[in-house]
Design a protein that fits this description.
The protein is mainly beta. It is built from no helices and 13 strands. It has a single domain (5-145), classed as Immunoglobulin-like (Sandwich), CATH 2.60.40. The protein has strands spanning 5-10, 14-16, 22-29, 35-38, 52-56, 59-60, 78-81, 86-92, 102-109, 112-113, 116-117, 133-134, 140-145.
Length: 152
């Protein structure tokens, strides 16, 4: 059985370069059954890898944040999502990307959940037992302007 999940990103329409670029992330369980998802490689654990595609005015912006090496997850690395429920997180994109002034910055989550578990008694699972699924969702766009008084 494959759960029905979707993600949503929320952003302001404009940010000022050099200030936090706070983005909201939500993942929703659209299934009629409860599940547990591994929060690794999602904003639910913070940004600890290249989990986004970021393009400013069409140019890909490289990821500059930390990269995690992983062993096997613990029970606490999973988030419980009852049927119809969602989990949310906020993160500052400017902590991991040097974002230039731009008219259109497009942010898309790569949409991969690295393990989904239907029965809590199976937790935690070793990496070779993981059930990876891709989660659909929409990219979000915003602009980044220079600080007021900055010579453009």
């Amino acid at each position: 059985m494959v759960p029905s999940l979707k993600y949503t990103l929320q952003a302001q329409s404009n940010y000022v370069q050099g200030t936090p670029i706070v983005i909201g992330f939500e993942i929703e369980n659209l299934s009629s059954t409860e599940i547990r998802i591994l929060k690794w490689y999602t904003p639910l654990e913070g940004i600890k890898g290249k989990i986004f595609e970021v393009r400013c005015d069409g140019v890909e912006v490289p990821y500059e944040g930390m990269m995690m090496k992983r062993g096997n997850p613990a029970r606490a690395d999973y988030v419980h999502l009852p049927a119809g429920a969602s989990a949310r997180a906020e993160f500052d994109l400017s902590q991991c990307y040097s974002l230039p002034e731009c008219q259109k910055c497009r942010l898309k989550f790569k949409g991969r959940i690295h393990d989904v578990v239907f029965d809590e008694r199976q937790l935690p699972r070793t990496a070779n037992q993981h059930s990876v699924i891709d989660v659909p969702g929409e990219a979000v766009s915003f602009s980044i302007s220079l600080p007021e008084g900055h010579p453009g």
